[in-house]
Design brief:
flat, disordered N terminus, 180 residues, 66% helix, mainly alpha
């Protein structure tokens, strides 16, 4: 008859090892954007409004506008975040969990299977390329490496006589015929 201590130790053997993580850096009440992911979202007064030199409103209007902007922005954001943030957080947590599950348990194994299945085709394709295409490409490279380009100076139609023009054209034609 097995003792109770041996049965509890055997059940402990099947538990996965516990991994201790430091979660203090994941949540902060003071630094709410430690990775600076919202740096493009500038919504302070000085980032949105600015009066250039020569177009100043009255000081009272400027101060009243500032207070209206800040008050409306802050109250509206608080109400929206109070009503929608928990639902949005739930939705995004669920979406990212599903995405992680799909990637870890569906996409990764599927991609690995495809990689294993297509390895044979990859090897055959690579062998065929080396056997048939490489010699052709090397032959074309050798063929095109024999082409020579000759540059000649252009002559002016106004200052060159007709006989000089004909002699230059004849000489250019002879260069072209020699290369072919």
């Amino acid at each position: 008859m097995p003792s109770s201590s041996s049965s509890s130790s055997s059940s402990d053997d099947f538990r996965p090892p516990r991994i201790e993580t430091d979660r203090r850096h994941d949540f902060s009440m003071t630094d709410r954007d430690p990775n600076d992911i919202s740096r493009h979202l500038q919504v302070t007064w000085v980032d949105v409004f600015g009066e250039p030199e020569g177009l100043y409103s009255k000081d009272g209007v400027w101060k009243c506008s500032f207070k209206c902007f800040e008050g409306t922005k802050n109250v509206c954001y608080m109400i929206l975040s109070l009503l929608c943030a928990p639902i949005a957080a739930f939705w995004w947590g669920l979406s990212l969990a599903c995405l992680g599950f799909q990637y870890i348990w569906c996409f990764n194994p599927c991609l690995r299977c495809c990689s294993i299945y297509t390895m044979c085709w990859h090897e055959c394709y690579s062998l065929m390329l080396k056997a048939f295409c490489t010699p052709f490409v090397k032959a074309m490279a050798l063929y095109f490496s024999k082409i020579r380009v000759h540059f000649t100076r252009a002559f002016s139609m106004a200052t060159t006589s007709k006989s000089e023009k004909e002699a230059l054209l004849k000489r250019e034609r002879s260069f072209i015929l020699e290369d072919v």
